[in-house]
Amino acid sequence: MIRPWPLAGSEQVFSAGLFRVTCDRARSPRTGEERNFHVIHMVDWLMVVPLTIDGGLVMVRQYRHGSRAASLEVPGGLHDAAGESAETGTARELAEETGYANGELVLLGDLRPQPALLSNTAHIYLAKGVQPVAGQEQDAGEDIEVVLIDRREIPARIARGEINNAMTLSALAMAHFAGHL
Predict the structure, then answer these.
(1) What is the Cα–Cα distance from 39 to 104, expressed in whole angstroms?
(2) How many CA atoms, within 13 angstroms, populate the side-chain half-sphere of residue 27?
(3) How many whole angstroms separate alpha carbon 28 and alpha carbon 32?
(4) Is 167's pLDDT higher than 90?
(5) Euclidean distance between CA atoms 145 and 77, whole angstroms
(6) Most exposed among 84, 125, 127, 167, judged by the fewest C-beta atoms under 10 Å?
(7) Domains of the chain (ranges, CATH numbers)
(8) What's the CA gap between 148 and 1, in Å, rounded?
């Protein structure tokens, strides 16, 4: 049976505002040996698979600095508003990034994006029956294009590499296995 590794100490080694890195010293319950592990701490992520009233999928295309390329993704963002529920934050992110709203939000599940390094959780929602209600409200660091997709195009777009963001693929798979795509 795998047991938790007791934390012997933790020291922040870097902070970038958006995230911080700690060097955690933990003891193996199997060997008793202590080792250092670096952990990246950031707020949780919110992601939503929005389906229009007529069944279309609302996605966003935006430039990603890590890959230095545009990425076709489901809308989402950081869960960084104090006191805001994940559901409220997801609805807010959807409206800000796409101008779509008024859908029924259903939690598909929570994922750990990279548990070897990241401490956060991604909350994945489905929004059924969204419709355009306003213009986008992009942050100064965003440049987002709204892309409406026929759900039947998803497999071909994945096969062509047009949809290659791992978290977006996970969100789409969760919606598919829940019977919504």
Answers:
(1) 35
(2) 6
(3) 5
(4) yes
(5) 15
(6) 84
(7) 7-41 (no CATH), 45-177 (3.90.79.10)
(8) 47
What value does the mean pLDDT take over residues 55-66?
A: 96
Indicate the pTM of the whole model: 0.94
Q: Which residues contact 135 (CB under 8 A, 6 or more apart)?
A: 99
The reported pLDDT for the residue numbered 27 is: 98
Using one digit for the tens of pLDDT, what is the confidence trace for 118-153?
A: 999 999 999 999 999 999 998 888 899 999 999 999
User: 3-state SS string over the chain?
Assistant: CCCCCCEEEEEEEEECCCCEEEEEEEECCCCCCEEEEEEEECCCEEEEEEEECCCCEEEEEEEECCCCEEEEECCEEECCCCCCCHHHHHHHHHHHHHCEECCEEEEEEEECCCCCCECCCEEEEEEEEEEECCCCCCCCCCCEEEEEECHHHHHHHHHCCCCCCHHHHHHHHHHHHCCCC
Residue 167 and residue 89: Cα distance in Å, rounded?
18
